[in-house]
Design brief:
Helix content is 72%, strand content 0%. It has 86 residues and is an all-alpha fold.
Length: 86
C-alpha cells in the first residue's frame, strides 16, 4: 500500500513523452469537427502502440502524417460537393 508521501509524488512522464510531442502537432490543418475527432482517435491508438513497443515514433509519425493528408483530401472533396450543389 502506498504511503501518503508516495501518493503526493508527481506522476512521472512516460520515457517517450518528449519524443511523442511532434505527433501532437499533426492534425492542425483539419477543419471539421468530425475529421478532428477521427484524427484524435487514431492519434490515441498510435501513441498507445508506440508506448507498448508495437511501432516506433517515426513509424507513428509517418502514419499520422499520411492519415492527415487523407483527411484533408476528404475535406476538399466534401467542400467541392457542397459548392457544386449550391
Amino acid at each position: 500500500m502506498e504511503t501518503m508521501k508516495e501518493q503526493l509524488q508527481p506522476r512521472q512522464p512516460h520515457p517517450l513523452e518528449e519524443e511523442l510531442t511532434p505527433l501532437y502537432l499533426l492534425g492542425a490543418t483539419l477543419q471539421t469537427a468530425d475529421a478532428r475527432r477521427r484524427f484524435e482517435g487514431v492519434l490515441g491508438n498510435i501513441v498507445r502502440e508506440i508506448k507498448s513497443g508495437m511501432c516506433t515514433v517515426e513509424q507513428g509519425y509517418a502514419y499520422l502524417e499520411n492519415f492527415e493528408l487523407h483527411m484533408m483530401a476528404e475535406q476538399v472533396k466534401a467542400e467541392a460537393s457542397i459548392t457544386a450543389g449550391s
